[in-house]
């Protein structure tokens, strides 16, 4: 993550209060270190899963909280666990 947005140090109080490890929350702190926007559930082939989107900028103050490189690195780590 960017220096100012290390997961232990959110850019603003609003983001710190909104982010949760709970998968039903709107903003999720994933184990990979990414902050993800929960877009809801999707059912496909009888299985239900979450639709998650990465975000680069804080929705509250506009600060860049994760770069494209941060996202790619974290997603690479997630993909490796499924291969």
What does this structure look like?
With 83 residues, this protein is of the alpha+beta class. It has one domain. The chain is 25% helix and 28% strand.
Structural class: alpha+beta
User: Biggest sheet: strands side by side, in what order?
Assistant: 1-2-3-4
The biggest sheet, with number of strands, parallel, antiparallel or mixed sense and barrel status, is:
4 strands, mixed
What is the average per-residue confidence, as pLDDT, rounded to a whole number? Answer: 83
The helicity comes to: 25-40%
**Strand-residue proportion:** 25-35%
Poorly predicted ranges: 1-7
The first-to-last residue Cα distance is 24 Å
Count of extended strands: 4
Alpha carbon gyration radius: 13 Å
Number of domains: 1
Shape: globular
Specify the number of helices.
2
SSE series? HEEEEH
């Amino acid at each position: 993550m960017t220096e100012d947005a290390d997961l232990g140090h959110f850019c603003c109080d609003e983001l710190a209060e909104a982010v949760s490890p709970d998968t039903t929350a709107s903003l999720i702190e994933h184990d990979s270190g990414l902050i993800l926007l929960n877009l809801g559930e999707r059912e496909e082939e009888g299985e239900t899963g979450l639709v998650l989107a990465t975000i680069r900028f804080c929705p509250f103050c506009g600060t860049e909280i994760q770069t494209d490189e941060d996202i790619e690195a974290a997603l690479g780590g997630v993909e490796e666990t499924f291969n």
